[in-house]
Amino acid sequence: MQLEGVNPNQFKFSIALTLAAAEGTLEKGKQIDSQLVKLEYQDTVFVCNPLINMYSKCGLVREARAVFDRMTNPDVVSWNAMVAGLVVNGHDNEAIQVFRMRAAGQIEFACQLHCHVVKDRFELHPNVITSLMVVYGKCNKMHDAFQLFSTMESPNRGFMDCYDQRVYSERARPSS
Predict the structure, then answer these.
(1) Do residue 77 and residue 3 come from a single domain?
(2) CB within 8 A of 79, min separation 6: which ones?
(3) Any signal peptide, and if so, which residues (predicted)?
(4) Which end of the chain, N or C, is more open, meaning fewer C-beta atoms within 10 Å of its C-beta?
(5) Counting Cβ atoms within 10 Å, is residue 6 exposed (0-12), middle (13-18) or buried (19+)?
(6) Do residue 138 and residue 80 come from a single domain?
(7) Are 43 and 67 in contact (CB under 8 A)?
């Protein structure tokens, strides 16, 4: 890039990494990775996601995991790229562990969010309660979702949607 007079930034690096992944050109990807470190973009989600993807597509799961682990705030794309990279490369057990880490983070986030809702006195707002019920339902925290449902003056379908989703997902699971 620089030899051609193009000033690199995180967006151009992201495009270059996406192309390197599509072409399977590991050497280009590694060169870009070293430039990311040199220019201090190595923790940016916008470049880490395609970097995880590139390393995974080239079969370098350890390198992909190292990029993922150095991220301070991985987003949904980061988590999905890491899980997909692990699965594609035959690391199913590790993929399940990463997926569970994400779920644990979601539960922790839901609890923190609930605390803020109570602290800021939004706990009586029906839309806020419904949103929290949905989060708890997706995390299989049905007891917490039901407790919120019980506090509502005029209950809506939020809890029933959570319950329906959980029952449906349990029915869809293969029996052992």
Answers:
(1) yes
(2) 98, 99, 102
(3) none
(4) C
(5) exposed
(6) no
(7) no
Say whether both 83 and 103 belong to one domain. Answer: no
End of a domain among 90, 108, 132? 90
Q: What is the pLDDT of residues 36-56, one digit of tens each?
A: 888 887 778 888 899 999 899
Burial 94-115 (b: 16+ CB within 10 A, else e): bbeebbeebeeeebeebeeebe
Task: Give the type of residue at 150.
Answer: S
Closest to 133 measured CA to CA, from 124, 119, 143: 143
Q: Which domain holds residue 83?
A: 1-90
Those residues whose C-beta lies under 8 Å from the C-beta of residue 146, and which sit 6 or more positions away, are 159
| Predicted TM-score of the model (pTM) | 0.62
Question: What is the number of domains present in the chain?
Answer: 2
Residues found in the chain? 176
Q: Which residue has the higher pLDDT, 103 or 74?
A: 74
- Average pLDDT taken over every residue of the chain: 78
